Amino acid sequence: MQRYHDREWGVPVHSDRRLFEFLILEGAQAGLSWSTILRKRAGYRRAFANFDIARVARFDKTTTSQLVKNPGIVQNRLKIASTINNAKSALAIQRELGSLDKFLWQFVKGKPLQHAHRDGRALPSTSKEAQAMSVALRESGFTFVGPTICYAFMQAVGMVNDHVRSCFRWSEVRKLA
Question: What is the C-alpha separation between 83 and 51, in angstroms, rounded?
Answer without folding.
Answer: 10
